[in-house]
Write a structure and sequence with these properties.
The protein is an alpha/beta fold. The chain has two domains: 105 residues, Urease, subunit C, domain 1 (Roll), CATH 2.30.40.10; 329 residues, TIM Barrel (Alpha-Beta Barrel). The protein has 14 helices and 23 strands. The strands form five sheets. Strands 1, 2, 3, 6, 7, 18, 21, 22 and 23 form a nine-stranded mixed beta sheet that branches. Strands 8-11-12-13-14-15-16-17 form an eight-stranded parallel beta sheet. Strands 4-5 form a two-stranded antiparallel ribbon. Helix 4 runs parallel beside helix 5, helix 5 crosses helix 8 and helix 8 packs parallel to helix 9. It binds N-(aminocarbonyl)-beta-alanine and zinc ion (3 copies). The site of one zinc ion (ZN) has 4 residues, from loops. This is Dihydropyrimidinase. Belongs to the metallo-dependent hydrolases superfamily. Hydantoinase/dihydropyrimidinase family. It comes from Pseudolysinimonas kribbensis. Keywords: Hydrolase, Metal-binding. Its cofactor is Zn(2+).
Length: 478
């Protein structure tokens, strides 16, 4: 078994930082040592197979992106990253674990879909992967399948309050699924937007000739997110199930989550980089020479980007500091402009919903440290440690300690990263939602279960390095 020493760096955890060497033996971390330590009298640097010099650099636990949609069939097309391209791009950006969503559409068998997702991922991934299950057809067979999936390590289930006829569950279906989750220990996840309101607003906007991407934002108002978030919390309270609200973008939804948490409920919130940095005015309302007022299609996702004039973005950073929001995932759901997003030319409601960011989450959040919005420790917590605890992987993932998987990122605070489709990007997209973003830091080396998969020459791993993670129940409950 190969041994590697990550030497001379500053090891950062969710609770502190310090100079330390990390000894990796095979796939796991063997020891976290005083810098320059010897073991049984011998100089470690001389006795290991490989030394990674981390002098002047940070050593983080590998990033965990708990919300991705590789190859997802959605909006009449498929998300443009496969498990192969998407996980490789993730690796480039210092993410060593994803949790992807198995999709059940109406009339589909949940367990068949679960097996299909395994077929898509197996042998193709650059990094480790787990699965959540989306339920779009809550009936007896789906509820029974939830018990079986828990045994398979799929311990979290997403329901939707939007997308009628595709994903939407009514309140009675949500109640039944939440009751099942309360009985088997699952974490229930919610896409919290009132789809009934949104569908009417969309039809009214289109009838007025408001067809550009900007109106995707105005027809999914914060009130629809706040109301749905509140309703989901009430059904969770009634049933006693823990609730994780995905892709929170409205400050009013944050307030609902904060109030539930103050009341003592196991209610959690996730936000995404796009809701921290991007806005209705600047992105959804953008124009370009190439696309005219269709440029905003690049940022059509749901929940939508919110108005900066209303202060949602600043509030989201604050909520990350105060733990009203616990973690950041990408909701990586990429589509190309040509042949995919352009299906919505002349009708924004036909633009496939989603943004691709799996490669950039660590850098974008690290910039929050540089900008004084987060501590370095909180950065590690929201990008790795909390996702591991929230979704039953902690101990193996999310922490640098003996016995944990050697998923490690050597990050250079003196490095620099320019994000863009030509500059750095490895996702299968013909544009970048982050074109021109500059990061005051750089992912230098990435280890996945002890294997160096990114070094100074670039990606050096192989497809199939990544393995399925059979997750346990959430370790985050109050
Ligand atoms: O726009 C989004 N978020 N696309 C992915 C599907 C979802 O709702 O998470
Ligand atoms: Zn969603
Ligand atoms: Zn999603
Ligand atoms: Zn560098």
């Amino acid at each position: 078994m190969a041994t590697t020493l990550i030497a001379g760096g500053t090891v950062v955890s969710s609770t502190g930082r310090g100079a330390a060497d990390v000894l990796v033996d095979g796939e796991q971390i063997a020891a976290v040592l005083q810098p320059g330590s010897s073991l049984l009298g011998s100089d470690l640097r001389a006795s290991v197979d490989r030394v990674v010099d981390a002098t002047g650099k940070y050593v983080f636990p590998g990033g965990i992106d708990a919300h991705t949609h590789m190859e997802m069939p959605f909006g009449g097309t498929n998300a443009s990253d496969t498990f192969e391209t998407g996980t490789r791009a993730a690796a480039w950006g210092g993410t060593t674990t994803i949790v992807d969503f198995v999709v059940q559409y109406p009339d589909q068998n949940v367990l068949d879909q679960y097996r299909l997702w395994h077929e898509k991922a197996a042998g193709n991934c650059a990094i480790d992967y787990g699965f959540h299950q989306i339920l779009s057809d809550v009936q007896d067979a789906s509820l029974t399948a939830m018990d079986e999936l828990i045994d398979e390590g799929v311990t979290s289930f997403k329901l939707f309050m939007a997308y009628k006829g595709v994903f939407l569950s009514d309140d009675g279906q949500i109640l039944r699924a939440f009751q099942k989750g309360a009985s088997n220990g699952a974490m229930m996840m919610m896409h919290a937007e009132n789809g009934g309101i949104i569908d009417v607003l969309v039809q009214q906007a289109l009838a007025r000739g408001e067809t550009t991407p900007f109106f995707h934002g105005t027809t999914r108002p914060w009130q629809a997110e706040e109301e749905a978030t509140h309703r989901a919390i009430m059904i969770a309270h009634l049933t006693g199930v823990p609730l994780y609200v995905v892709h929170v973008s409205a400050k009013q939804a944050v307030a609902q989550i904060a109030a539930a948490r103050d009341f003592g409920l196991n209610v959690f919130g996730e936000t995404c980089p796009q809701y921290l940095y991007l806005s209705l005015e600047e992105q959804l309302g953008a124009r370009s020479d190439e696309w005219g007022d269709f440029e905003g299609a690049k940022w059509v996702c749901s929940t939508p980007l919110r108005a900066r004039a209303d202060g949602h973005q600043d509030h989201m950073w604050q909520a990350l500091r105060t733990n009203d929001i616990q973690m950041v995932s990408t909701d990586h759901c990429p589509f190309c402009m040509k042949g995919q997003k352009d299906m919505g030319l002349g009708d924004f409601s036909k633009i496939p919903n989603g943004i691709g960011s799996v490669e950039h989450r660590m850098d974008l959040l690290y910039q929050g440290v540089v900008d004084g919005r987060l501590t370095l420790e909180r950065f590690v917590e929201i990008t790795s440690t909390t996702p591991a605890r929230m979704f039953g992987m902690y101990g193996r993932k999310g922490v640098i300690q003996p016995g944990a998987d050697a998923d490690l990122v050597v990050y250079d605070p003196n490095g620099h990263t320019t994000i863009g489709v030509d500059a750095t990007h490895h996702m299968n997209m013909d544009y970048s939602a982050w074109e021109g973003f500059e990061i005051d830091g750089h992912v230098d080396t990435v280890l996945s279960r002890g294997k160096v998969i990114v070094d100074e020459t670039g990606y050096v791993g192989s497809k199939g390095d990544g393995r399925y993670i059979k997750r346990g129940l959430s370790q985050y409950l109050i």
